[in-house]
């Protein structure tokens, strides 16, 4: 399995465990918001990691991808904040805290899988 596949599987497992751990403590709006935050954060993080892997050997494109993905994450949080404040069925505080937390948690996983990808390719 590729490093992106391992990252995706580990990230998905992390999100499922965190959502399941939070579930009993949330009301319906909070549950929907936390699940929505996981569904929004996961594909963005996996795609950003894939781009980082793809451009790892080219310094300028790598930095553009790194900075661009950071800006996209910030933009997603702002857009999500604007949307959830208008929808009464979604609790905005749990949603935004979960979204920021999911982005941060998945971001912390990246170095381990990035290093394993580099190690795999240098051993060949």
Tell me about this structure.
- By secondary structure, the chain is mainly alpha-helical.
- It has one domain (about 5-120).
- The protein is built from four helices and no strands.
- The chain has helices spanning about 5-20, 30-55, 60-85, 90-124.
- α2 (about 30-55) packs parallel to α4.
- The longest helix has about 30 residues, at about 90-124.
- The radius of gyration is 16 Å and the shape is flat.
- The two termini are about 15 Å apart.
- About 25% of the residues are buried.
How is this structure best summarized?
This protein is mostly helical and 124 residues long. It contains four helices and no strands.
Mean pLDDT: 90
From the N-terminal CA to the C-terminal CA, the straight-line distance is 15 Å
Helix content: over 70%
Number of domains: 1
Apparent shape: flat
- Radius of gyration in whole Å, from Cα? 16 Å
By DSSP (H or I, 4+ residues per run), the number of helices equals 4
Features:
124 residues, mainly alpha, 85% helix, 0% strand
Could you outline the blueprint of secondary structure elements for this entry?
Elements: H1 3-22, H2 28-54, H3 59-84, H4 92-123
